[in-house]
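Worked problem 6 (solution included).
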Amino acid sequence: RGIGGDAEAEAETGPRRRRIAAYVKNEAGVLERVAGLFSRRQYNIESLTVGPTQNEGYSRSTLGVEEPDPGIDQIKKQLGKVIPVVHVRELDDEPVAVELIIIKVNGEEPDKVQAITEMYDGETLDAGPRTITIQITGSEQKIDDAIDAYEQFGIREIARTGQAALARGEEETA
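Solution. The predicted structure is:
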């Protein structure tokens, strides 16, 4: 739970999961400043993706947070004050969002692993006698479901990106 909001207002609204998009100039230390802002105010970043945009010299960050409404409003205001941040926006409940997972499982049952990989439209990246490494992209729910399905084989490692997201339709993200 973040600090800096009205405790009574937070209790009324309760935490909610939100995605915040920030359009930033590519400058050294931007990510450190954003992370420091969250750390100083004791907000937790559940996921963070950053990558270049169609405009050279700029990146888009998508942050996943779970905070009460006053905390989310505070996060947006504080992010807007970080100098290389050009624009900040909270995305609506249904943005176009995708996540990537790379998962390494035990390889004793390759045919069964392959069947699950196909069921989740995944791709086998590496297959050896003891392990199989798979890539899957999709919604957070699809990724969670795939992890559950692979647990029967024994999961060795997971690398998960968190969601990258854009606003739907012609609406600008950030």
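Discussion: The longest helix spans residues 69-81.
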